[in-house]
Design brief:
The protein is 48% helix and 13% strand. The protein is of the alpha/beta class. Strands 5-4-3-2-1-9-8-7-6 form a 9-stranded parallel sheet. Helix 2 runs parallel beside helix 11. The chain is globular. The termini are far apart. The C terminus is likely disordered.
Amino acid sequence: MNSRVEATLDACRNEGRAALIAYLPVGFPSLDESIEAAVALVENGADIVELGLPYSDPVMDGLVIQEATQTALANGFRLSDAFTALRAITERVSAPILVMTYWNPVVQYGVDRFAADLAAAGGSGLITPDLIPDEAAEWLEASERHDLDRVFLAAPSSTPERLASAVAASRGFVYAVSTMGITGERADVDAAAHGLVDRLREAGATHVGVGIGISTSEQVREVQGYAEGAIVGSVLVKALSDGGVPALAALTSTLSGQETKQEPGLA
């Protein structure tokens, strides 16, 4: 099986940089606008898109993302809308699209049915923040059947055994949680992130994305020194909320370095 996510991470690494993995919730501020926003991410330098499914109990999300997902739900978002959005996005851009979802909606929908519909809509796989490999047998089987990536999380507090389990079960990359706590902007990416990536390497990880707290282009560059991907979320959601797709596009261009590359006389 071939992982488009891993291929993208490898291509970025060959260019001497970390991939920009950009998160937005689907359905915010509306379904159509979220499709345009996801396309804008890719057009302005995001290498991989992480589409979050709105959920009524987003225990790992900070206030910015919580408010956005609650808006989507209040506007009538339904799980089937995610597949509609995926089809529309993947018809327009070639970057891999991963869906980030808490596990309960997948179970309610039906694990194999969800995997089949995700693959049919052009999705590359799932990021499952509240699912641990020990409890993921049904998802592991479904992802194999439908050739989907599966991204599990690792935290600084994880035991060596848990890290090894996450590495063994993941396909695409392992999501290294840079600091303890919920998502949101932080002035500094926790130094524990670098140590966590080192531990994941020791456990055999070849593709690692670092997320939670990354909000500046400097932090994205910092991550490229030791990981394959930098995951940015809250600051992008805030830009979309405050200034719409144009503001989101401008910020993505800055984070990806595309803005700098386009300036005359600069490499």
